[in-house]
Design brief:
This protein has 14 helices and 17 strands. A seven-stranded mixed sheet has the order 8-7-9-10-11-16-17, sandwiched between helices. A six-stranded mixed sheet has the order 2-3-1-4-5-6, sandwiched between helices. The chain has a two-stranded antiparallel sheet with strand order 12-13. The longest helix is centred in the first third of the chain and has 20 residues. The two termini are 38 Å apart.
Length: 396
Amino acid sequence: MANWTRPLGAAAVMLLFAQAGAAQETLKLGISAPFSGAGATWGLGMEWAAEQAAERVNEEGGVTANGKTYMFDIVSYDNKYSATEGARSAQTMLNRDGIDFIVGTVGTAPLRAMQALTERKGVIVFNVAWGKSVKGPEFPYTFTQMNTPFEILVPFYTFIKEQHPDLETAVLISPNDATGQELEPMAIETWKNLGVEMLASDWYERGTTEFQPIATKIASLDPDLVDFSAAPPTDVGSILKELDVLGWEGVKVISAGSSVEALMAVAGEAAEGAYLGASADFSGESATEVQKELNAGAREALGEPLNGLTISPYDAIMALRAAIEEADSVDPTKVKDVLPSVRFESSYGPSGFGGEATYDYPQQMLLPVIVTRVENGETVELTRSNPAELEALIND
């Protein structure tokens, strides 16, 4: 666990003393994320945020259900952002380590591979997968803890078009996996509705290290805008660096853009002006005190701030605590039954679950949509908006 901790409050100290003689057990919470390769920055950040949430719950006396007190413990597994490793990590978590709650996993392909086991065994999975195919009534144990393209793309692209009304053409570059394949048609349709013609939609394999051919093709088409879809920051940085050498100057859009630091480390000044759809400035005026505190700790522990993806396990654990208390049980079936209607305090403020109109099941965590941009090498928030369901929840 990271060395960064928050001091115990007086109430928490008293509660711990009061419960000292009570039965205590440990509840293991799993993280399945990439801890190697291009997406490693996501896994490391998610693990750290989960540890801080578990630490907070434990300091406040744990969570009580059916007369027992449970302390949270985080156990992490490297899924390498692949279906094969996603299935392997699921087997290890469920069959060897007996984990009933997974508070963070990345990638549509790894999640699909896990669901074959988690749904059958009745294990709750919180995830940041961007595919629509992993949601619905047939996956009642699956809950999404950050915004996906179905929440992000319309407000994100609309804002960019408003800032650049002369945009007419675009190129889409997507990783050739389940996430990219599900995102592509929605991205093309959304840009089309905004009057932007897609000149090309090309794919690349995750793990690619040579991006000059892709950049050369983009430059030859000379689009007004390049949308990097679900590509991780390091891959985008490599392409932007090549495009800069080739002299392309256009609007840069990173729908899954999360870490400006990882992007800048590869692209340098070529990343300047890029719009990010999954990032956030958790040190700015719009951030909550919880987010500012977490963000400062992450900078100290990891060398970079948190973003919309990496902070998500914190929110999943807050939702899980509320659901366990509401169900008065750690039985995953009872917990999943109350999760769609539970209300909890996320790092962003009051939240709950919704999205039934989109997914036919209320399993999407309700969070603000935040648009950021790289300005002078820093993350700058440009705008944020609450979905209608979140506004209704806040005002209820």
